[in-house]
Amino acid sequence: xxxxxxxxxxxxxxxxxxxxxxYSRRRPDRVAPISDMLADAVDSRTVRIGLFAAWWWFGWHFxxxxxx
Length: 68
Hints:
Layout: H1 2-26, H2 34-41, H3 45-64
């Protein structure tokens, strides 16, 4: 039961992201598209280092660590 709830939660998040992206493409004056937000975010060196560290942590813990 918990697995189904988790999967449904992730599906809701993905569907919400797609919906917001479609809306932002039609009305860029109200909501900025994801590509514009990311372009503005990575202008800062601190953000780039933080993103690199987050991806490194994600890769290390999910791809290289042993599972129980």
